[in-house]
Design a protein that fits this description.
With about 90 residues, this protein is an alpha+beta fold. The chain contains three helices and four strands. Bound molecules: zinc ion.
């Protein structure tokens, strides 16, 4: 499945969310893959579920965390999954 990664160059190295994502990227695992989406888990103190929706034109990346629900922009978990894919920590 081709994955459209978020633009990681949007984040400055001192961005709090980005720093948290760098810590979390080793904790990303692929949960399951279907034709339409990929489900990831990010385990830290708790566990969050990040889903990539292949067919959605916008908001392809969604997370079940409160921060994402309130902001509708990539949270640290979504950034962590993108980093894990980019850095080949997980393979799809
Ligand atoms: Zn999240």
């Amino acid at each position: 499945m081709d994955i459209e990664l978020i633009d990681l160059s949007d984040y400055k190295p001192n961005d709090k969310k980005y720093i948290k994502a760098l810590r979390l990227m080793d904790r990303v695992k692929v949960d399951y893959i279907t034709d339409r989406h990929i489900s990831f888990t990010v385990k830290n103190e708790g566990e969050h579920n990040v889903i990539y929706f292949k067919e959605k034109p916008v908001e392809k990346w969604q997370c079940d965390c409160k921060w994402y629900a309130l902001h509708s922009s990539p949270c640290s978990h979504i950034i962590a999954v993108n980093l894990a894919i980019k850095e080949k920590i997980i393979r799809l």
